[in-house]
Amino acid sequence: MESEQGGMDEEEIDPFAELEVSTQAPQKKGENMLEALMNEEDEIVPTQGNLFGETVVEFEDVELEIESDDTDSLSDAEQTYSMLLETVWVDDILDPSEVELLARKRDELNISFEKHLMMVRKIIGV
Predict the structure, then answer these.
(1) What is the CA radius of gyration of the chain?
(2) Residue 106: which of 86, 78, 65, 126 has the closest Cα?
(3) DSSP readout, the chain?
(4) pLDDT of residue 17
(5) Rounded CA separation 116/126 (Å)
(6) Which of 119, 114, 111, 84 is CA-nearest to residue 99?
(7) Which pLDDT score, from 0 to 100, does residue 71 have?
(8) Consecutive 10-residue runs of the chain (126 residues): their mean pLDDT?
(9) How many Å apart are CA 115 and CA 112, to the nearest integer?
(10) Do the beta carbons of residue 123 and residue 89 sit within 8 Å?
């Protein structure tokens, strides 16, 4: 039989042995990545609490009234509308949807168009 080499068939030749590659798992600690990931000694992150071990300082809630000419003269509805107006006016352009929103909110909050114009003048500084 000519296909035999040194008493072995080609099918029995171990390619890893021929290439001198070890078929055993690495024995050195740290070389097996799966083992490192599954190591039970690894630190477990708590599901609750502070993850960074920092001390949390809590303060008492103290309510302070800020006195301002704007808040004293405006009702809650006017303050809400003023905040909305400042938000949509931030780019100095009112698109049609913003105009419609302001008109709806004026009706809901019972704010007159004259009061609206006064608020606009205050915002633009006229």
Answers:
(1) 38
(2) 78
(3) -TT-BTTB-GGG--HHHHTT---SPP-STT--HHHHHH-TTSPPPPSSS-TT-PPP--------PPP-HHHHHS-HHHHHHHHHHHHHTTTS---HHHHHHHHHHHHHTT--HHHHHHHHHHHHT-
(4) 75
(5) 14
(6) 84
(7) 45
(8) 54 76 58 65 55 71 63 74 88 87 91 90 83
(9) 5
(10) yes
Cβ within 8 Å of residue 89, ≥6 positions away: 120, 123, 124
- Please give the Cα distance from 118 to 111 (Å, whole number): 11
Name the residue type at position 20: E
pLDDT at 104: 92
Tokens of 87: 């938000």
Distance CA 104, CA 107 (A): 5
Strand-pair partners of 121: none
Query: What pLDDT score does 47 carry?
Result: 53
